[in-house]
Amino acid sequence: GAAKHLVNVDANKMGRLPADFLIGEDGTIVDLYRATKTADQMPFERVEAFIPEEKRCKCNRETCISPRCRERHVQMMKQAEAFLHTGG
Questions:
Q1: Which residue in 26, 28, 64, 27 sits closest to 48, CA to CA?
Q2: DSSP assignment of 49-88, as one string?
Q3: If 31 and its partner were Cys, which of 22, 42, 49, 80 is the partner (CB 3.0–4.6 Å)?
Q4: What is the distance between the alpha carbons of residues 6 and 79, in angstroms, rounded to a whole number?
Q5: Are 79 and 88 in contact (CB under 8 A)?
Q6: Distance separating alpha carbons of residues 79 and 88, to the nearest angstrom
Q7: Which phi and psi (to 5°) does residue 66 adopt?
Q8: First CA to last CA across the chain, in angstroms?
Q9: Burial 42-74 (b: 16+ CB within 10 A, else e)
Q10: 22, 55, 69, 67: which is closest to 41 by C-alpha?
Q11: Strand, coil or helix: 43
Q12: Residue 76, by phi and psi: left (phi above 0), alpha (psi -120 to 50) or beta?
């Protein structure tokens, strides 16, 4: 069989920049992000927009990778604080 090799190349030394791809279920590239610096990554909002709504994270935790969950966590904490101060 054909041997597979993993080659670790410093892209910066080769004058290349990374890119991120979102690939649809049919195997086609539906979004491409070309980095302008070696540390660049596709913004999470673009990745999240690619995920069907019913499959997106809804944990609402402060430490979640999803900005929506973190924002909802802040809103929930503000509502809870307001509830405690007003007594319901």
A1: 64
A2: HHS-GGGS-----TT-S-HHHHHHHHHHHHHHHHHHHHT-
A3: 22
A4: 50
A5: no
A6: 10
A7: -80, 125
A8: 69
A9: beeeebbeeeeeeeeeeebeeebebebbbebbe
A10: 22
A11: coil
A12: alpha
* pLDDT, position 4: 53
Q: Distance between CA atoms of 11 and 72, rounded to whole angstroms?
A: 38
Q: Assess contact for 17 and 34: CB atoms under 8 A.
A: yes
Closest C-alpha to 22, from 4, 54, 45, 55: 45
The series of mean pLDDT values per 10 residues for the chain, 88 residues long, is 51 75 91 90 90 90 90 94 84
Instruction: State residue 20's pLDDT score.
Output: 92
